[in-house]
Amino acid sequence: MPRPVDVGDLVSRAREGQARAVARLISLVEDASPHLREVAAALAPHTGRAQVIGLTGSPGVGKSTTTSALVGELRKRGKRVGVLAVDPSSPFSGGALLGDRVRMQDHALDPEVFIRSMATRGHLGGLSWATPQALRVLDAAGCDVVLIETVGVGQSEIDVVSLADTTVVLLAPGMGDGIQAAKAGILEVGDVFVVNKADRDGADRTVRELKHMISLGRKEIQGAMWRPPVVKTVAARAEGIDLVAEAIDAHHGWMADRGVLEQRRRKRAESEIEAIALEVLRSRFGDVRGGTALEQLAKRVVAAEIDPFVAADELLASLDRV
Amino acid sequence: MPRPVDVGDLVSRAREGQARAVARLISLVEDASPHLREVAAALAPHTGRAQVIGLTGSPGVGKSTTTSALVGELRKRGKRVGVLAVDPSSPFSGGALLGDRVRMQDHALDPEVFIRSMATRGHLGGLSWATPQALRVLDAAGCDVVLIETVGVGQSEIDVVSLADTTVVLLAPGMGDGIQAAKAGILEVGDVFVVNKADRDGADRTVRELKHMISLGRKEIQGAMWRPPVVKTVAARAEGIDLVAEAIDAHHGWMADRGVLEQRRRKRAESEIEAIALEVLRSRFGDVRGGTALEQLAKRVVAAEIDPFVAADELLASLDRV
């Protein structure tokens, strides 16, 4: 028998900072439990306060170490901090690998730090479904700052950007040339750039190339121009992390003054609403005619009998009939 | 005035191998032109023949060089080859960066090779929308093999896996330790592994670690077990590329014998149909009440007045009324 859930009590205890209540609420929203909507409704009035920071970069640049050091810096400043570590490998493995989560152990016993590994799902909803809900839990639980750390480039990075107020992009010297960096799309998504492992050879060259490429590629937002700073760090020794925190705050203030923050958050809510609505519709596809409609249509497409657009029309038509 | 489009003529010319007709058809499907459905219908009867190979790996492992070398190998074997180079940076930049496409110049004048850079879109449809349609064009144009090359990990990699018959994962020595590799989810997605730049220090160690991790993590498919081979290459000198081609063919034969190929292709068609159906629905969201419904709902979510699930319900309800 499933444990009975008192959502109101859980939310109260989460707001008092009880880690178990926070963890339980995240599980309830992450698993799309029957209590999902009740939890969402109970959280809503307490949301909107947390500053959301995305951290992204290729494997090997030291994201987890930097996240851990940044948590330390924010704790020094008296902030309550949430961390969502998003792992795109999970759709295939069914669970997050904990290898470098170990580095976050520094904060495991701090009652003002909440750390959660998120498994993205192997479907279209992906990160855009579960992570915003976990973010709402941490926000309602009184986190001043939520850090969302993700691996690599591509859709998960795009999703993090769409969730964050400020996106921090990490690089390291010698991880490939400038074109490779640009190819990964990092120039357009970064509000703050960090060159980590700056004690290595080539750090100054990486900073120089990055600044040059940034100067070429920036666009105006709301008629104003944010010039992303490039900060050098050695996260393993917490060097330069105070400067990263300051750069993040400078960006936050810049956005707030110009209405960009409000705009980003509205866009975030739009994506969230849309993802939920699409997920609701998508769940209906599987139900159509006992789940066989999609499979039958796919067989006909593979057999070159119909094209996928005709198949999609038939799928939607059968949806309307249920 | 837009150019008039004779879809039937374009398809005929594409099937004769005329590169301009192929390029034009891809543009028509990629831009979701008014002719999209007409093109899809005209292509459908000619699809289902191409062998689809996905190539993925982190930036810097030599994907473009390997793709180019593999095209050369397939040409030696008399195959007509299509290449789709998918660039996840494009949602932000509005166009693909051409930096390392230059390495494909070897094949630019070969009339039996079609190369196309794909811009993924900055929305949920993403790669799962445009790339399958471009794949159908190349398939109908008589390509024996279509190579889909993508950058990095995350959603774009997942999408490539869902499109390909065989997924080739590239690594290079010294790109990070084993846990980093596993974190990126590559072990579960690879049918064939390639350790490129095998003339570098540490290549044998990378191969050894990879084989060990593969041996730990494999799952049965349809009651059978495919053991992904690990092939060493120096793509810049075309060394080992013949072995890559043989490993791909071995995997293809293995799947065909066991019905796995048919199953993968049906799953691919299901994803494609579903993505199209969701995109159709999604386009309706923007139309609801002159495009303001979603924006107004988002504002109320940001103001902590309603939760996003209630907002999604209202969005869907307003959709039903139009």
From TrEMBL, chains A, B:
Q: Which residues form the AAA+ ATPase domain?
A: 49-193
Q: Which domain of life is it from?
A: Bacteria
Stored SUPFAM superfamilies: P-loop containing nucleoside triphosphate hydrolases
* Keyword set, alphabetical order: Chaperone, GTP-binding, Hydrolase, Nucleotide-binding
Q: Does the keyword Kinase apply?
A: no
Record keywords: Hydrolase included?
yes
| UniProt similarity note | Belongs to the SIMIBI class G3E GTPase family. ArgK/MeaB subfamily.
What NCBIfam families does the entry give?
lao (TIGR00750)
Q: What is this protein called?
A: Methylmalonyl Co-A mutase-associated GTPase MeaB
